[in-house]
Amino acid sequence: VSVAFKSAVDEGVVDELRAIVGDDDRVLPNLSSRMSRTRVPAPFPVHRWSEFMPDVAVLPRTAQEVSEVVKLANRLRIPVVPRAGGTGLADGAVPLRGGILVDVKLMNAIHEIDLVDRAVTVGPGINMLKLNEELKRHGVFYPDDPASYPCSLVGGRIGTGGWSLLGGRFGHTRDNVISMQVVLPTGEIVEIGEGGGRKLRRSSTAFNLKQLFTGHQGTLGICTEATLELAPRPEVEFAAFFAFDDYLKAYETTGALTRSGLATLAGVVLFDEWKVAYLRRDDEAYIPQPPWVRAVVAVALYGTRAEVEPASKRVMELGRSRGGKYLGDEISSGDWASRHDRYATPLHGRSREGQAVIMSWHCEDAALNYSVLPQVREEWHAIVDRYAERYGIFDDWGMFAYTSGPGKPWADYLVEIDVGIWEQRLDDENWAGWVACKREISEVTLRHGGSITACHGATREGDAELVPTEMGSAWEVVKRIKRALDPNNVMNPGKQSLDEAYE
Amino acid sequence: VAGDDQRDQFVEQWRDNAYGCFSSGHKFCREVCPVMAVTRNENHTPTAFHASIVAMEKGLVGVEDVADDFVHCTQCGACELRCPNTLFTGDFYRHRTRTVDVVKAMRALMVQSGNERSGWKLWNERLMADHNEPVLGDVRVSQEHVADWAQGLDIPVGGETLLFVDCEAAFARTAYTRAFAQLLQAAGVEFGLMREQWCCGGPAAEMGYVDLARAHAEHNLADWRAVGARRIIAPDPHDYIAFTEDYPRYFGEDYDVEIVLGVELVNDLVREGRIALRQPVQRTVTYHDPCRLNKRKGVHAAPRELLRAVPGITFHDVDHVTQWSSCSGGGGGLPIEKPEITREISRRRVAKAQQLDVDTLVSACPWSERPLSEAGAAARPPLEVMDLFELVAESAGIEVGGSRP
């Protein structure tokens, strides 16, 4: 079996790409086009920038064009990397072996809004905020609401298996995509759903392929169209923030809230004391909390007034039941409203000596059960502290734990530790230190029965090599699927240890 | 090599600021950018602009590699407002995102390093020769005709308060200028014209022609001082930007001239009852927030208040934050180099307005009104584009006269 490795896309390939799209402005072999499609917001080995450049970027407008591009790549064994918003927190959209980068941002049309069967069909290049601006006048919305809501695109959400801040109530990306059109690594265009038509949510025919084509990190194909859920626009939104003098009280309050049985509960977020300290670093990003505040719990309810009003009273009781102090309407509604903007600013970085330095945000995510949160938290902070001490370019920005299970918020959490990295100081040694730090964090997760990623993807060094371990006996199945669909390993190669499928 | 020194200086000046964006990488700016909405090309994002400075520092790219990317900007300022660095912590750390300044600086470097764009080069050669921008195409503009717009209005030259009217407003959309001047006259405001009216120089600076821009600024300030002017009325938002941002940087503490923004002045006069709006205007309108008022200067209340003061009008407003992503595409020299992008931005702006079932799109910036009017005329059904001053003048019973491009 041949394996596509770092390629040299020559003039002949560029000419073939131009012939496929028929528009020279949409085939971009120039340096700046490659340079600007290299990284994502995750920390980047900036000292090795050129190693991650694609050889050429293509901006298709149709699935047919994507299909022809992929067929060409498959024929010539050239890596293909799909890229939508390029806002992922792992390296799904980062080319590891050059090749052809398929940038789907131009495929951002709304094809159909069906208010009867409640589905909207879009291109993968559309952004959720922009989509919802259009949907607003119809009284519906697409409820995928990540921190990157103003900038991430539907195609990337599907490729990475995105997670939504409102997921506890409305589900995450994988729950809100009804069906999709995918270009396979061999170039065929296929309609992927549950079975039946494009707008059918549940079926028991054959296999459930939809989940397979969600969250594969661009390694199984390129989404070229998606049919998405339309939910009624919630009549009201209610948010409450509670402060605690002790993490365990906040943790227990979080548990109580998630077991409340309130159907309008969209999410509960637990901030630990490192996170509160980080948010205290200036006087405007987070209204300063008194020194006794060592943890915060945020709760949000969405639904009709008839549901949310009584539920909000219950939330206030539970929020205060273990020593929580309500932080007031201004912080509650204001901070919840700014949930996309506020929680990771590079300007808050601090050197070990306390000097303000601009740092890049790494958000290391994991999926963990409720029972292990306190223990994992301690182990993770200890790891980051050790590496920060040794390398001097890391900074602990604290932890969040978010309820994760849609409609079942009681057991599963997306947990993240945010680490600032002084990228301007990166060299091979510091980068290796960072990767080792990440790996230790992930190993803790696995030891506690967690998954090394809840939504960002296990595509980066430090995570990728642990994928076979996490998958265990199922790893063989994963490899067989990958090889069956992508016989030449052209689709986003080098990610998630999937090269092992070709050994 | 001289170009290399200038590049090094540029990188030295902007590297930390660029790194503030690079290290954030959130890209909230992308979906609010009017140019990106059309091209969807990641090269044209503010993120890419800043990244290219970091890449330049690393020796990965040169000016010639990124020059075309930096043409794709109207300097509307939406990206700066939407940036989380600016929104929350920029002021605290004195580290606001400054994309407009970054684009201007890179364009200056393009001129200095032999990477000029042909359209801008020609445009600014004509500015250098004629001292107003070539807004009439092949018909040359000249000092002889710079005040033709004021024919019959009996406006003196000189005085303590001057009305600044250049380029598009002086030669092309003179209806706008005549409406404004007559509103002031109706209110009894005393003002004069410059002895020798040159372009404000702002657009030249936006296209990277810094020396030319500076020469025009110096000329204008000297002309103001020669007649003892203390106060300059700027109806055109682009002039207002030049006088309140560029000129203070050029002249420092010596710059002691009061700058009055036209729309705020007229709104004050109406509110104080010095201009009576008695003629009902039977139109259903929406308002286009000009970028240099709304996004660059935070001026969005006065034009709305003024519009609401017009009797008979039905006003379907779209709030000014939603309009961060609106633009006509007319700014920053974009229509000179990339007219097809300007056309598409204006087409979309008009289409948005038409969703509101209005018969008129009201703007308050002459540079926006040319592409918007063209898009309005091409739309099916067509949509009329009017200037706010022209509308207010109609309500004040003024026969405006003049031309619209």
The fraction of residues assigned to DSSP E strands of chain B is 5-15%
Structural class of chain B: alpha/beta
Which residues of chain A sit in consecutive blocks of at least 5 with pLDDT less than 50?
none
What pattern of helices and strands is seen along the backbone of chain B?
Answer: HHHHHHHHEHHHHEHEHEHHEHHEHEH
Main β-sheet description of chain A: 7 strands, antiparallel
Mean pLDDT of chain B equals: 96
pLDDT averaged residue by residue of chain A: 94
Gyration radius of chain A (Cα, Å) is 23 Å
Distance from N terminus to C terminus of chain A (CA atoms, Å) equals 8 Å
Record the strand order, biggest sheet of chain B.
5-4-6-7
Which protein chains make the most extensive interface, counting residues with beta carbons within 8 Å of the other chain's beta carbons? A-B, 52 and 44 residues
Task: Tell me the Rg of chain B in angstroms.
Answer: 21 Å
Can you count the helices of chain A?
A: 16
Molecular structure report:
The complex is a heterodimer of chains A (503) and B (405). Chain A has 503 residues and is α+β, with helices and mostly antiparallel strands. Chain A is built from 16 helices and 18 strands. In chain A, the strands form 4 sheets. Chain A has a 7-stranded antiparallel sheet, with helices on both faces. Chain A has a 5-stranded antiparallel sheet with strand order 5-6-10-8-9. The termini of chain A are close together. The mean pLDDT of chain A is 94. Chain B starts with a helix and ends in a 10-residue tail after the last helix. Chain B has a 4-stranded parallel sheet with strand order 5-4-6-7, sandwiched between helices. In chain B, strands 1-2-3 form a 3-stranded parallel sheet. The radius of gyration of chain B is 21 Å and the shape is globular. In chain B, 57% of the residues are buried. Helices cover 51% and strands 6% of the residues of chain B. Chain B is an alpha/beta fold and 405 residues long. Chain B is built from 20 helices and 7 strands. The mean pLDDT of chain B is 96. Chain B has helices spanning 2-22, 34-39, 46-57, 63-66, 78-82, 84-93, 99-112, 118-130, 167-172, 174-186, 202-206, 210-226, 237-251, 262-271, 291-297, 301-308, 334-337, 339-354, 366-378, 388-395; strands at 161-163, 231-234, 258-261, 284-287, 314-315, 360-363, 384-387. The interface between A and B is large, with 52 and 44 residues.
